[in-house]
């Protein structure tokens, strides 16, 4: 009688001890320092490890908002967020990571990050000698590519959890998709890399400008004038790199700013409606609905959690 293969994921950590989390992460991904933000709900972390086709996977699930300061070790790491979000600065450049928006960290990268209250994702460590371990390509991916990498990572995770003998094939498919992002033939790859680099830089420049203007309404024409760039070019860069047009990105930035305001005790004297208006958002049920869709809770619930 044939035997069902044993699961190929092992539990490395299942703890509410923040110190255990620090030690475990530092041993796996390089120099790692975390700060548990206050106020916050209780901390918990669960970490599982699997291996297939030369890839090491760490499946992470946790609660508690963290500030992270780390340096990537000698192996490149593909971070695939499945729930929640992180705001990252990779070698001084700002990125956002949410479901469908993975990031690639290379050996030696200096990373500063901030997580949402609930977080789940998969860290995929590439082989130490892999060509993508070093380089200066953008950390992010176009939305279609990011979604494909996410789907393939979920398939690999399921195969490992079920003890599926096809996990090596799933790992190979994921690695091939990742490599194809950077290699489409010698000349095309160089052109594609330069074009993608320019798009990422423009999308980040637009985001930085909008971040300084959140307190007031502005138009895409104003943004184009400020960046001295045609608005169609800015639109295309933001959609390609961020998965949304500039004004939708501005709305997301405003919602995040609202969330931070709700979590700060110094704003307790202001109503939720007043804080919405302060961040350039309409004080309306529509804004509250958008907030709940983005963060999985109402503005009032965010305030109550931060100020029990």
User: What is the percentage of strand-forming residues?
Assistant: 15-25%
Strand order, main sheet: write it out. Answer: 1-3-4-11-6-9
Structural class: alpha+beta
N-to-C series of helices and strands? EHEEEEEEEEEEHHHHHHHHH
How much helicity do the residues have? 40-55%
The number of helical runs is: 10
Mean pLDDT, to the nearest integer, reads 82
As residue ranges, the low-confidence spans are: 1-6, 184-192
Radius of gyration: 21 Å
The N- to C-terminal Cα distance equals 57 Å
Shape type: globular
Question: What's the story with the biggest beta sheet?
Answer: 6 strands, antiparallel
The total of beta strands comes to 11
Q: Overview of this structure, please?
A:
There is one protein chain. Strands 1-3-4-11-6-9 form a six-stranded antiparallel beta sheet. It has a five-stranded antiparallel beta sheet with strand order 2-5-10-7-8, covered by helices on one side. The radius of gyration is 21 Å and the shape is globular. The protein has helices spanning 18-29, 143-161, 167-180, 186-211, 220-227, 231-242, 246-263, 272-278, 285-295, 299-306, and strands at 9-15, 30-36, 44-52, 55-63, 66-72, 77-83, 86-90, 93-97, 103-105, 110-115, 118-125. By secondary structure, the protein is of the alpha+beta class. Residues 1-6 and 184-192 have low confidence and may be disordered.
